[in-house]
Amino acid sequence: MKLTILTIYLSLFTLVLYGQVDSSLFKRTAIDTTLAKGMNMDAVYNRPFLNMGKLPVSLGGYMEADYQYMGEDGITEGHTFRIPRMTLFVASSIHRKIKFLSEIEFEEGGEEVAIEFAAIDFNFHPMLNLRGGVIMNPIGAFNQNHDGPKWEFVDRPVAATQMLSATWSNVGFGLYGKQYLKNWAFGYEVYLTNGFDDTIISNAENKTFLPSSKTNKERFEESNNGEPLVTAKMALRQNSIGEIGISYMGGVYNTYQDDGIILDVKRRLDVFAIDFNTTLPTLNTYFVGEWAWVWVNVPSSFTQQYGNKQQGGFIDIVQPILRRNIFGFDKAIINIACRLEYVDWNVGNFKETGDSIGDHLWAIVPALSFRPNAQTVIMFNYRYMQQTDILGNPAAKIGGIQLGIASYF
Q1: Residue 146 and residue 142: Cα distance in Å, rounded?
Q2: CB neighbour class for 42 (10 Å; exposed up to 12, middle 13-18, buried from 19)
Q3: Integer Cα distance of 125 and 128 in angstroms
Q4: Rounded to whole angstroms, how far apart are CA atoms 229 and 234?
């Protein structure tokens, strides 16, 4: 499977390289990815693509690479270099009202290959569009708008990756639409897809951990229990104020029957999230963040280390401090930024003592970034976080420097 996908994409890029003999055949769609003019639901198409003459196929992608020197309670593993991911896009306008887009991600130097998005969109009306295929579930904002070059930070938010499942996608169908009225925009999305499985409470983490379901590739072939996962989102944007989104994702996660034999009651997973982004006038200070709540029906036979309620989120503050020609790059930008984040994997108190259950983390990440153009960023971060175990023992102190680059191509 991995070899087949890789062969297809290498063949397409061979066509691109061969065609570069005549550069007039190629046209790059330039998009300023740092501007928040569109809505989060537009992120899937709001990317730079390379158009090859009269061919109906457009290509694009992005890459991330970084260096880290991190330590925990004074102990460090030394210097580490990574290439977390390289992602390839292939898009096609089959008809003026039919579009196709795929997003294939190669993680950790090609150790894992994943189809994050591969869907066909049918446009019937601005407020009524059909999407089918591998769909990115629109829970919160980051899951849809996750491309590395759009952010000032090396790591993705902890709440999006270690509580929710960043780049969480499934096979399914749904409807979406968007309507403009002067400076206002309203959008919605509703999808039915395959969903989570029992690994969210039966995993190597020994706690309730939604990202564990990402390792189950069978979700692209069949449902774990025959019950659809429902994901719905509504968003409202005012150009001078910003965008707010409210989203929900929920369904039965466990295998409650096998060949008609009832094995367990239906156990639900429900997630509610709110996200917001805005840019202050004059200073151009950009704020973006989201907060999510997770409820999981955990069997009573499980110990209290498996939480039935979780919550967490993040907020990024980005302030441009210089915009000018720098080192020959026209309109380059230098930003200072800061990310605040918090995750609690087990909200509540111990039944026996009434003491608060631990298993939470908070972090602060100041950053300095240089954008030579709108599609490329060089990041310098200092990450400091404290993580408390389930018993509430003194928190582990984790800190270090991170240097990263990310760019569309």
Answers
A1: 5
A2: middle
A3: 5
A4: 17
Q: What is the H or E stretch that residue 74 is in?
A: none
pLDDT of 369: 98
Tell me which residue has tokens 């692209």: 220
Interatomic CA distance for residues 374 and 123, integer angstroms: 29
Whole-angstrom Cα distance, residue 270 to residue 293?
8
Residue 115, Cβ density class (10 Å: 0-12 exposed, 13-18 middle, ≥19 buried): middle
- According to the model, what pLDDT value does residue 252 have? 97
What count of other Cβ atoms lies within 10 Å of the Cβ of residue 215? 12
How close are the terminal C-alpha atoms of the chain, in Å? 25
Whole-angstrom distance, CA of residue 246 vs CA of residue 240: 19
Structure tokens at 324: 């000018």
Domains of the chain: 2-408 (2.40.160.10)
Angle, CA of 15, 21 and 25, to the nearest 5°: 70
Count of residues in the chain: 409
The span from the CA of 303 to the CA of 186, in Å, is: 44
Q: How many CB atoms lie within 10 A of CB 344?
A: 22
3-state DSSP percent of the chain in helix, strand and coil, to 5 = 10, 55, 35
pLDDT by 10-residue block (mean), the chain, 409 residues: 49 44 50 61 89 81 97 92 95 94 88 91 97 96 94 97 94 97 96 96 95 92 93 96 97 91 94 97 95 97 96 98 95 97 97 93 98 97 97 96 97
Neighbours of 195 (CB within 10 A): 25
